[in-house]
Amino acid sequence: MKTKNIGVEVPKPKVTCKDRHCPFHGTLKIRGRIFTGKVVKAGMHKTVSVEWPRLFYLPKYERFEKRKSRVKAHNTDCIKAKVGDEVKIMESKPISKTKNFVVIEVIK
Hints:
Blueprint (H helix, E strand, L loop, with lengths): L29 E15 L2 E12 L4 E12 L11 E7 L6 E8 L2
Parallel strand pairs: 3-5
Antiparallel strand pairs: 1-2, 1-4, 2-3, 4-5
């Protein structure tokens, strides 16, 4: 199966898959925001939870506090991200009720 160009400079996966929600081998189009985070859960079928830290400003105290953002992302068979991996995710159309992102690269 041919690997298509997804419009983002990421390395193409070496393995092919037959997942229709794969941005490289399926029909899923990706657009919008790109985030880099760490996989904290991978117990669901073809889904991982990705988390990254952010700073939130508190005007009353004129300080920042640390908060975490967590989203669910589709994990295809050709990428196979595991717990502890640093991944790059990108926004797509809704895949399910809570999944709006797909993993496009495993960084480490």
